[in-house]
Amino acid sequence: MKTLKEVAVGETAKVKKIGGNGPTRRRIMDMGITKGVDVFVRKVAPLGDPIELTVRGYELSIRKSEAEVIEVEE
């Protein structure tokens, strides 16, 4: 199992599954990150938090803890 947190900068990954509990899961899905969508990792802050993504043409920032519950295809 590979998570979004493990995807290298400059790579694209396809979301396979979103875990987490209610509020975290809802926040991720409200940003447009859903099963089957491609996520491009643009930048990771020096300490690994936040992670900047491009999803469906939008630039987003997510926390490292949120990236850990997003499973991607290898």
From TrEMBL:
InterPro entries: Fe-transptr_FeoA-like, FeoA, FeoA_core_dom, Transcriptional_repressor_C. Residues 2-74 form the Ferrous iron transporter FeoA-like domain. It comes from the Bacteria. This is Iron transporter FeoA. One of its GO terms (molecular function) is transition metal ion binding. The keyword Translocase does not apply. Signal peptide: none annotated. It comes from Dialister hominis. Keywords: Iron.
